[in-house]
Amino acid sequence: MGGEEKKLEWLNFYLSKGFRALEQTLTETSGKYCVGDEITIADLCLVPQVYGAHRFGIDLTPYPTVRRINSELEQLAAFKRAHAHRQSDTPEDLREP
Questions:
Q1: pLDDT band at residue 21 using 50, 70 and 90 as cut-offs
Q2: Given pLDDT bands bounded at 50, 70 and 90, which one contains residue 64?
Q3: 4 with 44: CB under 8 angstroms?
Q4: Phi, psi of 36 (to 5 degrees)
Q5: Of 6, 71, 79, 94, which has the highest C-beta tally within 10 A?
């Protein structure tokens, strides 16, 4: 049904649409994290979405608040340990220490 090119087009459209909406919301709700200065479920959901965007080459330049919050979260030990490339079932070629 269109192959890889269509898949990437679909991913780019919907991830970008979601990030645009999220960026707008975060300008009103964020502090250090998505909702003020406490980690919430919104932060737990943000990191994998940003990971997916990077994985598929989505440009996050238009979303400075998303990038800032994700950067803050990636510095936290719990988020480092939870990274997809540090899980026991991660394929060897993707695994990070």
A1: very high
A2: very high
A3: no
A4: 70, -145
A5: 79
Q: Six-digit token pair at 53?
A: 């965007």
Which tokens is 56 given? 């598929």
Secondary structure (H, E, C), the chain: CCHHHHHHHHHHHHHHHHHHHHHHHHHHHECCCCEECECCHHHHHHHHHHHHHHHCCCCCCCCHHHHHHHHHHHCCHHHHHHCHHHCCCCCCCCCCC
* Integer CA distances (angstroms), 82 to 4, 24, 27, 66, 78, in order: 29, 27, 26, 19, 6
CA dist 20 and 90 (Å) reads: 30
pLDDT number for residue 27: 96
